[in-house]
Write a structure and sequence with these properties.
116 residues; mainly alpha; 8 helices; 65% helix
């Protein structure tokens, strides 16, 4: 439970970082906020700890897009096969960003597998 409480301490920072990501990727702007809101509605039957964990992961699920080139994120028109392969790396990049901090380890696992 202590880790979950620590996650909540980071909530404002997380929303600021995601707002910066939304500014970079206008195609999916506010997507992470909508996903986080939806998870709150869908996860009401879970424990408070699980609900918080999933809510934070929902905010951060696309954080790996920071590592995807602008030419791909902001491309007008369809992506090539190679560009899709690059874009699909964002869960791994997100995991790599988050997993080194113990408080984000479980969140990193969810981020890594959010397209599974």
């Amino acid at each position: 439970m202590a880790e979950t409480a620590r996650l909540l301490e980071y909530h404002d920072l997380i929303t600021s970082v995601i707002a910066a990501l939304d500014a970079r990727d206008t195609y999916t702007a506010s997507h992470s906020f909508r996903v986080a809101e939806l998870t709150q509605q869908l996860c009401g039957f879970l424990s408070e700890q699980e609900n918080i964990l999933i809510h934070i992961a929902a905010h951060l699920h696309d954080i790996g897009k920071i590592g995807i080139p602008d030419a791909i994120l902001q491309k007008d028109g369809p992506l090539t096969d190679e560009e899709w392969l690059e874009a699909r790396k964002h869960p791994i990049v997100g995991y790599d960003i988050l997993h080194t901090m113990p408080v984000f380890y479980e969140v990193a696992q969810i981020v890594r597998h959010h397209h599974e």
